[in-house]
# Entry
Amino acid sequence: MQLGIYIHFPYCLSKCPYCDFASRAEAVIPQERYTEAVLRELRARAAGYAEPKREVVSVYFGGGTPSLWDPHQIRRVLAACRDLFDVQDEAEITLEANPGTTDEGRFTDFRMAGVNRLSIGVQSFADSQLLVLGRKHSGSDAERAFRTARAAGFDNVSLDLIHGGSGHTVEAAARDAASAVALGPEHVSAYALTLTGLAEDVPMAKAVRRGEVVLPSDDEQAAMGEAVRRELSRGGYVRYEISNFARKGFEAVHNTLYWRGIEYVAAGCGACGFARGSGEGAFARRYMNDRSPERYLARVEETGIGEASFEEVDRDQHLRERLFTGLRLAEGLDLAALEKDLGLEIRSPFAKVIARLVREELAAYDGTTLRLTERGFDLHSEVAVRFF
# Structure
């Protein structure tokens, strides 16, 4: 059985106006105290994932801005992961990095600490769009960060792009994608700016409601997405998930765990974890750590874990989640394997839904695997809701 580990680092130099992640802008970061809390939580969580045996195939440092975490502390966290869990030698170990918080020495230290993949939050190469998004780096900073990563020895680098900010155009979105292709990363994540369904009411969403900020229409955003996909495809990147593109063999391991419903340990402020068979009568349990760094630290120092809430997940709920996330993948969803995993009949109850999706050319189905077409990808949420 596979397992992922997610470590959240909540501190940033500044808070982006569209960001709803658990993050906090701090001039002084409690490096030692925060690391000790994460180490204590990992130790407390390990027992819950001890049986049956699981192999860790991914460790992901997200944020926030994890590239602000001292490399020495990252090394300590990774050492604890290896001591407490069966981390595979070839495991993907990713660190998110902000282009404005990098230099070759620091990247080299991260590489020496055990990080083997960087995810750089470029968002755009256009300074005007970066200003709109509240980013503190420039387009040249983004290019420099990528080249710095290469100089530090990273041969697996992902770049994040966002389209659909105020004033963004189809042509500008295409230029951003073309600029990413020109650099030659192994992976590109390209997302439309989203301000609905967030964990918190972010400043940009409030500005939009007040009429102070006007975003492109849904049709314009869709056209931007199409232009981005066209540029990435032309550059040799394969769309393996709705918003993710990679050269062959460089698909993100960690996010794929989420989409396939595989378990993951979580530690750190605002981190969420998922464990199967951990509640009486429940199929699985999802837990969420406190989103406040101060409360998180206090919780861990008092109880050993930063958990603020949890939910028991039954088989029907997990089925709905697996349908929603699994259909995000270009490879589709193996319904026969899912039936075996969950002990539920799936294909017969949903036969009419599946037949209609095929008839409308939103999906392809071979009796076992259901895959969305390109048009189905564009309408993913509407398609998935039909199963609910």
Remarks:
- The mean pLDDT is 94.
- The two ends are 28 Å apart (CA to CA).
- Residues 218-234 form the longest helix (17 residues).
- Residues 100 and 137 are 5 Å apart (CA to CA).
